Queue: 3 jobs
Job 1
Amino acid sequence: MLHVQDLHKTYKVGKLSYEVLKGVSFQVDKGEFVAVMGPSGSGKTTMLNCISCYIPFDAGDITLGDVNLANLSENELAEVRNRKLGFVFQDFMLLDGLSMKENIMLPRIISGKVSRGMEESADQLCEIFGISHIRGKYPAEVSGGERQRTAVARALINNPLVILADEPTGNLDSKSSRAVIDTFRRAKQNLDATIFMVTHDSFAASFCDRVIIMKDGVVHSTLQNPGDPGAFQSSLLAAIKEMSEEGAA
Amino acid sequence: MTSVTALYAKLRKKGFKNYVLITVCIFISILLITAFSIVMQSNTVQTVLPEGGDSRKQVTMIFSLAIAGCAMFTAYASTLFFRSKSRELGIFMALGTKKSTVARLLFGDLGLVTLVAAAAGIVLGTPMAIGIWQVFRLIVASSEMAFSLNAAAYLWPLGFALFTGLLLLVMGLRFVRRSNILDVVNEQRKSDPVKDVKGWYGIVGIAMMVLGAGGAVVLPRVMASHGYTPQAWTNLFYLLAAAGLYMLLLFVVVRGFGGKKSHYKNIITRSMMKFQGRQTVLNMCVIAVLVMAAYYAMFYTPMTLSSSNTAFASRHTDFAFHYRAGETGIPGRDSIEAIAREEGQAVSDYLEVDMANLATDGIDREWTDDGRFGDTYIEFYQEESFFSESAYNQLTGGNVDVQPGHYVFVSREGYSHNPYDYIKDMKRFTNPTTMECLPVAFQAEVSNNLLHRFILLDDTDYTQITQGLDSGWKEKWVQFDVSDPENSYTFAARLKDAIIDGSSENAAIINNYDRVEKMNAEAAGEAYEGDVVPEMQISYDMRDSGVFNTDWRYIPKFRIMDSQNLVFNIAVYLMLFIFMCIICFAAVIVIAYARCLTIALQNQQVYSDLYRLGAKRDYLYRSVRGQVARVFAVPTLVGTLIISAYYALLMYSNSGSFSPGEIQAFGVIALLIAGTSLLLWVVYRITLRKTTRMLGVDLKGVST
């Protein structure tokens, strides 16, 4: 579904260069819920932005389905963002001037695939994620958790190949975080969605099928969920601690 | 809502205030430029302000500054607009909207905004110009003050609208073409901080301003006094002054002049201003420059009125006039006394003496390629007016003794010789009728405000050189006092009319009409410009105009009339300079107001966070007040100080001293500055109230 191969990205600030991604490779399969963790500066958000086609990358390949993103024009990249990817951001990125339902429908409207089914799909997603009661409201009128669940619904409206989520629980309290993670799990179970999430939150990551741990611009290790979120969170924390000690040594 | 266009329209409606802000900014810029341009291009200004003259240059300079200020202000407003649109357009892009679609939406908006603002500005600028003009006509209704509208006036606002459209187009293209979508999304949150500046920035900035302004004023005079042509490059010194202004304002924004104690006290205010530093400093620079332009225009009125009135007051007689000796219709002593009697006045100290117009030698100076003057000595060069020493002493009660073979030059108080004049170097005077010459040398200079530019000769020399002079070159000088000068206006007006009515057509010439130059031109087979250039023609039909009253060669010098008609005679200049002053201050107020509102628009989150951190309301209020006060006070203060110093330097360098009229004018200027500062303070208070209310930190019951 998503195949990243030897990805490199360097930022230039004045005369200085910072190599943030130093050859990242991994794969995400259809229907998989994968998290990426790692300390600040490990390159996880940069990697997500490259996959999202928000920033260009220097070398390597990103293949989404059967499309290699490296060779696409701006218009083709826009089409990939709209039809093959869904996005969930830490700060929700909802448009304040549109109602929650309009926000959910936005990718479909942008794609031009406006049909009677669009509103039904939006209503259905609201139903699945428990936000039907706020669909006529505006972002400023609802809670952070509700906003993020709306963002997840928006990410799914075009039936994308992958949902890319950047710290989706970063701005939420524990109750709202749990609600958003449940939303992802429901999307996976009910809609067979593929989710790729960057997070600092070991609790959120513990519900994923697999966690990729990054360090210093490369994949440090990958942990598979044994099926018990509590035990998986403990092993995640242990792995991160071990990685930190490696760094200190 | 089934299309991107429809959704965008809904977002536009929600974010209407951002559209209002940029539309109003462009509208006001074009409104001011339209009104200014209409006045500039009117027949009155085009006729009265001579092409290439100092007044025209000053007006053009202020107009240029106003346009530059409006351009910078518009660019600033455009930046704010793009910031306000960045998040929603960034999200559109992030969710897969093609850039061509984003461009279509954005340029549609920008086109509409520019069109509406430009049309409104141009349409309403016209009544604004007419309105202000008519207010002046209520005060001064001279014949030159008839309003005229020239189509050429609309070229400037149309050009500015085109500039604004292109600016928005370029900014829009840069906005859409960015490859990093996250940069677009996060644009709204971006600050434009300025780097920390060194402690010497303030002092060096001040030094650069002093050096720049001083250099631009003094250097051309120094060059000229050493025989070099003042070159245009000396104006580059103004760039040094501008850089100094930027450094000073940068220093004030980033560091301030306070010590360490105030550093911590004002840390919130200063850090917020610093993190929006580039825009803040740029805005403050524009405000300071416009304040300077406004005051420069404002100072013209008191300086002109005061200097002129002081000069009138210092005349040695109440009434004086001169006329060609051959004129027969000019009222004589009996007629004058008869008119005076009818007007309840008694004439006293009546004097009538001979004067003559002769040719002097001189230097024809032209600039050469190497930057020096190319001098050509001409024996028979130009026409000047002469008295014998005894006639002059009789008129003034003085005791000037001119040595044979010498001459004395009469100048008004505070008169400064320009470096090109030859007045102290003349070697020969020529009788233009007989072409007899009198070799002479300069003896001295005496001061008299009424007889400025007369040349005095030894009695014997005078008799000798004027022998055989045609009556057209001879003149009579008449002067007298009246019993009640304060109430002599009607008498003066009747006498003036009688003099004009009695003057022949040959005397209908302007001050600058030079019969010696005419003789030279005709000898060379050329037409004399004074006979062909329309601006150099004058007619008795124009007797009520300001131009006639300042330019007619034989205009009577009646103190009561000159004093009371001064405003009338220079009405066009006054109106233009006051108009410019109003326009520049209007721009200052709009820019400062808009800048302060953006403090509120951009910092709502910061103040909300500070409130959550436990900051009290009065602390937040004081923080906002600190920023608003800086935006208003610092550039206004700096601009006021700079222009006052610059103006004083100009006045001083004109004559090497301050005349009593200038000193008096400085007093009036101080009062005007105080009044204007009060007005700006009121605007500042209104702006502060609006800004604090927008941020929800306005004070009710907290002492300020």
Job 2
Amino acid sequence: MEGNIEQINLFLNFGLPFLILMIAYFFGSYIEKRHFRSIRKREAELLDFPVVSFDTMPDDWNVSRSDMVTGSIVISLDYFKRVIAGLRGLIGGRIKTYEPLLERARREALLRMSEEARTQGYDAIFNVRLETSRLANARRDGKGVAGVEMLAFGTAVKFASRFANSE
Amino acid sequence: MIISNTESIPGRRIVEFYGVVTGNTVRAKHVGRDIMAGLKNIVGGELKGYTELLQDSRKEATDRMTEQAQSMGANAVVNVRFATSSISQGAAELFAYGTAVRVE
């Protein structure tokens, strides 16, 4: 009976966190790979849709209407990578596990903005800006929800006749 | 109402300036959503509940900004910016601001 309780205690103290760590590692990597695949595919589809970060429009754009469009995502790191990042924090240096997270969030936000503009019938976006903000309840000890919000916004324009001014 | 994050409305000429207009909203997290997000936090990835929450909040802040501009007699808001600030654990303020103008 006592042996049983000891075994259960051992499992709760070491086995369970390890199990969660493994689950987090496998599902986290899978979700990340799948997300990158989807991003690459959608970016290829949007290759002919100009998205520029200039604050003034190129002179040859002849515009009939415009509006502001936004795209955003809240994304979080898996538990395994958070633990790795925490360990890395002790010795300092580059935290590789966070880099792909922020990259895919940023690319996803840009894609959502472009997709929104395209479905509304616009032809291009200019003056694109990106903003990053951390969710308020992300606690430093790694508990709580550690999320990052990425916001992309810009001015979408519809061409009256493309490159009409340059002809 | 046309809004833009550039200093002018593309293809239009600004004829009158009314001044800065702002709109804000303070939101607290939802307990149910937070439990789901907590579970999602183990495997990582998008926290859809939060994405929607922030999108709704930002839309409300933008709507309040345009309402204010409308009451001044403007028909466009230019140079719009967004900002986020944490008020306390679990509450955040989102605000949008820009310059109310009249365009031709």
Job 3
Amino acid sequence: MVSSTSENPMDGASTAISPRPIQDVVIRLAGNSQDGIQTIGGFLARLAGRSDQEVMTYMTIPATISGGPSIFQVRMGTGEILSAGDQADLLVAFYQDSYQNHIGFLKPGGVLLYDTDHVKPNPDDHRFTSVGLPITARTVEAVGGSSKDKGKNLFVLGLLARLFDLDVEKLTTLVKDRFGGRAEDIVRNALLAFDAGYGYPAEGLRQCFFRFDAPRVSAAGRHQVTLDGNTALTYGLIAAGVRYGAGYPITPWSSIMEVLRTELSKYGGLFVQTEDELAAISYAIGFSYSGHLAVTGSSGPGLSLKMEALGWATMAEIPLIVINVQRGGPSTGLPTNVEQSDLLQALYGSHGDTPRVVLAPKNVEECFYVALEAAQIARKYSTPVIILSDQGLATRIEAFDEPDLAKLMVDPAPDLSERPGDFKPYPLDAVTRHAPPGARIASGKYPTVSGLEHDELGHPSGNPQMHQKMNAKRRDKIKALGLELPKPEVHGDPDGEVLLVGWGSTWGPVREAVTRLRKAGIRTGQLHLRHLNPLPEGLGEIFSRYRSVQVVEMNDPGVYGYGQLAMLLRARLAQAHIQSIAKTDGLTFKVSEIIDGVNRRLAETAAQ
Amino acid sequence: MSSATLSPAPAAPGAPLTKKALTADHPTWCPGCGDFAVLASFYRVLERLQYPQEKIVTMAGIGCSSRFPYFVNTHGGHFIHGRSLPFSAAVSLGRDDLHVFVFGGDGDGFSIGGNHLVHTARKNVRLTYVIMDNSVYGLTKKQTSPTSPIGFKSKTDPTGAIDQPINPMRTLVNSGATFVARSHATQVNHMIDMMEKAARHDGFSVVEILSECVEFYEGAFDAANPRKGGQFLQVENHDPTDLVAAFKLASEAWPGRFGVFYDSPRPTKNALEKGLITKARERTKGAADLDLLQASFRKAR
């Protein structure tokens, strides 16, 4: 059995914590959404990114319109940070309910920092170093005037800067950048609150933590950037030459369309906010038809609404990018929580046989690159491509190497050149290449795009043989893509007890679990799938090298006990040792949950 | 459908665009259908407008009328039921050099696509929408449509329709469309005139054409057909920029009047979006795409 708690310098300490260099720290800020928790969490993440530190964040936002409990968790350090951390080293509790709801996430031996104006911690709980300070009173004192307790977040930021020896100059620059452009007294008040926190006499507390190790120099010698997943995806689309799109607001997709709406006009493009999801995909298909590869997106319920038009795009073979930032479902479900339960919808939603491409990024950095890949595939195979992100990735801030844009940027100009006399939009022996309107056709015969089954020229055909041939044409190009995908790589042991298979945002926690399982002597490998349809070749051979294959995903194991990817893999490979570690509690996987799952499976196998 | 039987001669660049070059598949409509006349009128309109053939886009949704694009030799296509407007709006916005025509029926426009009609109109996207209204679902063989009158007997209302029908002209005038006209498929010259005016309008223009379904709703529009004893009354002494007057026209008793009900330009979304691009370009001093994106990443360092 492997312990599911991580190794940490503070493990085992009860009240006295030995001061020594630390590699990483997990800070959880718990308050209400109007307190600006996300703002200072963002500052910390940006600071870590600017300091070439690894950083990973996790936040929950209440689904209510205004107010409600809100948390932001930052894990930053100098090693490789793969998850936002199962447990916190430091909990900052602004209110009694923040204390009560989150004390369980604090590591035994960790530090509880609480606002004495609002929180009364349990005096009999001696597991932590508890430090109370009048955050509200001191903020009001520092800022003065009529600002009430606004600025508490910056007071705490100042305090954290002192505790962790953070770069004050960089932090204050971030604060000024953020509040600059607003009234002068807002910047002044923010800095007053920050200074008050920084200057608060908390020398005793400083003993709890120490400096981070010397920062790791970025391997590529490139700058680090800190972005959330949605922004990275958006910038990836721009780099990929996507200049047109349409959408309808829905959490957690909206921020992509907000940024595109502002950004694309700078690039001479256009993003349309439409009347509904059906119009959104219709616009996107229209843009693509007109020669501009376009994007639309949504979250699960919106993807369902787009399905009829997506069927048309498959039938008419239109290149298109559809983003689904998954959240908890079905229906309105858990709109601000994470889930991976739209995989089957992405693959098989819509009507009829609609083979299409489905990709999933594993972290924020890959959100950028997956957009480029999606655009490249959509153009090459004239097909819709769905990108499955999720709420966890969308809002999480991570640091990564700045992409080499000069090498990556794609020229988006449509090809309006005259097409030769034998031009056919739907040749049976080649991949479809549309002639956008404006392109002359030498034969004088102009093509139609159609949702009806059609012949090679796009004219309606009710011929059953033609339907079968065209179905094969639409399917075979997806198969061709499958053959050219890179062979999947295994991280960790190339054979052994357990292969952990994942897709999307579970990558980080799975990787950490692999490290811990191997340390405990269990031969473990990790295989992560970015291409979900088509699947890459060679999976069966890899799977057969392990006694057990556990597919880790955030969806329900369903009537037959298998999560959505596990079901697909079992159908594809017919290997009985493929099993599921699945959950739907709306939160990203903790490393310990994966290890516990593996332990349970190993025990089951041993008992058999 | 045999596309091979008709092979339009390639028009040399600069050669006038003729009906011969514009003819594609033979229409699949029933003999006597009003839609034939709409198609013939559309060829005439394009002959008059003389747009370069490759710059014309003919789109449609689903329904009898929506087979239209297969019969016109231009770029275009046949989208899903009710959504041809958002599709076509994107073609117009993405490619300002094109001339976009959308055809559809009363089901497409007033029922399944009703919301899109209103929103494309309020956005004032530059395109021309022709609604071929036959007041019945013909392709699916006689169900009640949103414009079927009360009492109309169909397969879904065997004892007669009971739901209040949509008044197409009131809906269109109210939609925010900047050009609204009405015509009748038996009045070819009038149709040509209305469609040409609509095409020349800078904005969202819509023409409602009463087009009889001889198979499932024979005689539906006889009241406005002089050859069937009706009266074809044209709009007279009407200020097309007067919205209230347009509503009054639209509210006249059946069969009402025909002509331009409303024509009052306002900035198109095409122009407004261009304005946003120009402003953004000014702010960024026309920086190249690479520089723009690099700047965004620099801010994230």
